[in-house]
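Fill in residues.
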C-alpha cells in the first residue's frame, strides 16, 4: 500500500508540474497549500565568504541544486525543484557560490577550484544524507568534480547543459593570433544570450586555474547513475560535451537526453518538466534499490 500511495503522490505532483503548478497536491502527498519558498539562510566559514542557501528538510536521497556561471539559486529550475522535492517529502538544498547572488565574495575573484570548495562545504556541512546532485551549466562541471571528491555522498548526477572543460577547450581552439590578443588584454569577452550583460568575462588567471580541473582528457571515476540533458540549439556550450562526459564516466548507468529545440538555459516549461521527470525516475530507482 505504501508503494501505491507513493506512486499516486508522484503522479499527482508530476501532473501538477505539467499544469504549471507543482504545489497542487493532496494532503497524502504533502501540504495541501503551497508553502512559501524556503527562507534564505547564511553559513559562515573561517576566512572565507559567507554562503547564502535555502533548505527544505526531508527524507533521503536529498536533491542539491548547483546553479550556473554568474547565475544564482533563484532561477526557475531551482524553484521548480524545491516545489517538487517538498511535494514528495525529500530534502532539498540550493545555494549561491561565493561572489554569486546573495552570498558574500567578489565574483571576479572566483575560480573553478574555489567554487568546488563551496559545493563540498555545503555538501559536508549543510546537506543531510546522500544526495542527487543537479548541476546546471557550470554546476554540471562542479557536480562531476564533487562526485569524484565525495563518492560516498553522491547517489546520482543530473547535468543540464554541462560545461565541463569548455572554457579551457574553447580558448585553446581559438586562432593563435586571437589567443595572443586575449592574453595581452588579460581578459576574454565571450558573447552570450544567457545573461543580461550579453557577455561572459573570463580572466586569463581564471582560465589557467580552470585547467587544473579539466576532466575530459581521461576516464572520469564516477560510478553512480548519471543523466545528462542538453539542448541541440545551445549556443553557449556545444551539446557534444555532454556526450563526451557520458563516454568518459565509468558508470554503467548513463543516459544522454538531447532536446531538439533546447537552448542553453533549459528553462522553458517542457525543459523543466523533463528535468523533474528525470530526477523522479532516479529517486524511484534509488529508493527501490535501498
Amino acid at each position: 500500500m505504501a508503494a501505491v500511495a507513493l506512486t499516486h503522490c508522484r503522479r499527482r505532483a508530476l501532473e501538477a508540474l505539467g499544469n504549471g503548478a507543482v504545489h497542487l497536491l493532496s494532503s497524502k502527498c504533502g501540504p495541501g497549500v503551497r508553502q512559501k519558498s524556503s527562507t534564505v539562510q547564511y553559513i559562515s566559514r573561517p576566512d572565507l565568504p559567507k554562503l547564502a542557501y535555502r533548505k527544505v528538510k526531508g527524507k533521503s536521497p536529498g536533491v542539491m541544486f548547483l546553479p550556473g556561471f554568474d547565475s544564482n539559486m533563484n532561477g526557475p529550475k531551482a524553484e521548480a525543484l524545491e516545489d517538487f522535492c517538498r511535494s514528495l517529502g525529500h530534502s532539498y538544498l540550493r545555494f549561491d557560490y561565493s561572489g554569486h547572488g546573495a552570498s558574500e565574495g567578489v565574483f571576479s575573484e572566483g575560480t573553478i577550484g574555489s567554487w568546488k570548495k563551496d559545493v563540498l562545504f555545503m555538501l559536508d556541512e549543510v546537506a543531510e544524507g546522500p544526495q542527487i546532485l543537479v548541476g546546471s551549466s557550470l554546476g554540471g562541471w562542479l557536480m562531476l568534480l564533487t562526485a569524484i571528491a565525495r563518492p560516498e555522498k553522491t547517489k546520482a548526477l543530473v547535468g543540464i547543459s554541462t560545461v565541463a572543460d569548455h572554457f579551457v577547450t574553447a580558448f585553446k581552439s581559438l586562432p593563435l593570433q586571437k589567443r595572443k590578443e586575449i592574453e595581452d588584454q588579460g581578459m576574454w569577452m565571450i558573447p552570450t544570450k544567457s545573461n543580461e550583460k550579453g557577455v561572459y568575462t573570463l580572466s586569463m588567471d581564471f582560465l589557467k586555474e580552470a585547467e587544473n580541473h579539466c576532466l575530459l582528457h581521461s576516464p572520469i571515476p564516477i560510478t553512480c547513475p548519471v543523466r545528462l540533458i542538453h539542448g541541440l540549439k545551445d549556443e553557449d556550450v556545444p551539446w557534444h560535451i555532454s556526450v563526451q562526459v557520458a563516454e568518459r564516466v565509468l558508470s554503467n548507468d548513463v543516459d544522454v537526453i538531447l532536446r531538439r529545440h533546447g537552448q542553453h538555459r533549459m528553462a522553458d516549461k517542457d525543459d523543466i518538466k523533463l528535468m523533474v521527470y528525470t530526477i523522479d525516475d532516479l529517486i524511484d530507482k534509488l529508493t527501490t534499490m535501498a
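The beta strands are 41-45, 48-56, 59-66, 90-95, 131-136, 154-160, 187-191, 199-203, 226-231, 254-259.
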